[in-house]
């Protein structure tokens, strides 16, 4: 689990380095809020309350279009290393509505 979490964190932080800096929200912020979700996103099971707290916080932080686009890009990249169906269902399981699906086919620029 620790090595999977380290891999997940490194992957998202790598994306931070190459991601657009136009938005106030960073991939580091996305990562730090979603670290409690790593176990669920890889193996399923119950969603930890700390994960849902991070999902809710991230959603409240991403208010502007550039912030939402950046968060979308970070989430889309991170979804490559986790179970895609678990990633796409996470916001709903946490009672959070986001304006785009977590999917490899999502166009984060629109």
UniProtKB/TrEMBL annotation:
Molecular function in Gene Ontology: lipid binding
SMART domains per record: AAI
Domain Bifunctional inhibitor/plant lipid transfer protein/seed storage helical: 27-108
Stretch forming the signal peptide: 1-23
Keywords per UniProt: Disulfide bond, Lipid-binding, Signal, Transport
Function: Plant non-specific lipid-transfer proteins transfer phospholipids as well as galactolipids across membranes. May play a role in wax or cutin deposition in the cell walls of expanding epidermal cells and certain secretory tissues.
Protein family (similarity comment): Belongs to the plant LTP family.
Protein name: Non-specific lipid-transfer protein
Name of the gene this protein is made from: BnaA03g13140D
